[in-house]
Amino acid sequence: MREEDKMCVLCIDELAIKANLFYNYGRDTVRGVEDDGISRSLTPASTAAVIMARGLKSNWKQPLGYVFTSTTYSVVKTKDLLEKFIIALDSVDLNTIALVTDMGSNFMELSKLLGVTKEKPVFTLGNKEIFYVFDPPHLVKAVRNNMLLNSFCWDDKKTCWQYIVDFYNRDKNLTNRCAPRLTNAHIAPGKFEKMRVKYATQVLSATVAGSLHTYIELKGLPEDATGTMEFVAFFDKLFDIFNSSKLYPCKQYAKPFSGQPFQIEFLQNALEFLQKLKVINAREQMNCMEDFDQLLLNLSEFREVSVASLEIEEAANKLSFAVNNCDYHTQPLPEQNAFKYVCGYLIHKCLQAHKCDVCTQFATVNQQLDDSNLFVHYKAYSNEYSLFGGLKTPHESFYNYIYLLEKVFFSNIEDKFVQPRVGYSLYLSCKEIVGFTHPCTSFPYDYLLQLFVRLRLFYVIKNSNRNFKNTSKKNRKICILMGL
Ligand SMILES: [Zn+2]
């Protein structure tokens, strides 16, 4: 690689993602939380950011990593991450010259933290001087958005979007159009259309500037439209000069920047012009925050609970100590009902894993209808032959055992939720602390523990995802609440 091929630009871009957790069985990990590759937090991720390096003078690009963050992710952490990337690039002899981001509020904050100003768009990180560049395609969209709502004024001139609308309305009905590319999406872009760069660049283009000029000359538009025309022509050139991609383009300002006199002169004039610009009739302070490429990404759907793929090692240890100091009856009655229903499900699954007379007897021993098992009773598909139909009502010791497992699960979940092998470590905690003695020596204790942990994790994730749907971004929390 030649020295000049090693010069690169670091870019970061983000897109909004739908807050959603899911449990990855294969890796036994909860996905969907804030994760910057260094640590994971209990906050659901709402943004996915990609960091990419790309050659400044040659055409190569390399994604370096991606980060899942939330609105609360600190800029200090972003800065630390950046430093890591710059040092990593340096270690393979790649020379970072500039950083490119859009003008999202977090990046504005980052630029401030890095000490970047209009006068001095440079910061030092990892012993390097690096230029901070705001993404031109994003800037051009921001200008267009401002033009839609407000007027830009300078000297005795101003812009007025209505002239572009008037021109479009006449032009669109002609057989031979001046600006055949323009559509309604250019003139009155919707929320998603506003994110497309081309709808902005094709309006702020030489074609539209030339068309407006023609209409003014032919008295199709008033003299007052001159400001709008000049503004459009200026931004067409400004965008071109920052967006050169071909060596020999047909447009003069789209030539690669090489410091030619016409280029320097244009940029110097541009600086003066931009400093003169004022925004009036600001009904709304526009910034670029609405450009969160709002892609609602369904990370994954939660699949049905199944134990088959859980990679938990076989435990041969017999659980010998009995359950004590734990009474599920302390729960409120409606909860006791739901709780018993779940216990019935668990023992039913255990019977599928191993069945004998002793186990069947244990699983159905409780045939008394009381306030705490009404739900099991009513929920039974058919209770013609027994009070609880096919649903199981196991021995009291089983309820207490599961209740104790619940307590252990909830006292551990917060610490372990974002850790690797979440299911396995919760299983170990449950196994370590509690146990009960089943009358059958072949009772599948381990299977029960694994199933219980799965089921509980499933509920936490399901409740959290439900919470994300109904709450604003800031208030989204992972719901670690006891109770079904
Ligand atoms: Zn058995």
UniProtKB/TrEMBL annotation:
Q: Which residues form the Transposable element P transposase-like GTP-binding insertion domain?
A: 138-249
Q: Which residues form the Transposable element P transposase-like RNase H domain?
A: 3-115
Q: Identify this protein by name.
A: Transposable element P transposase
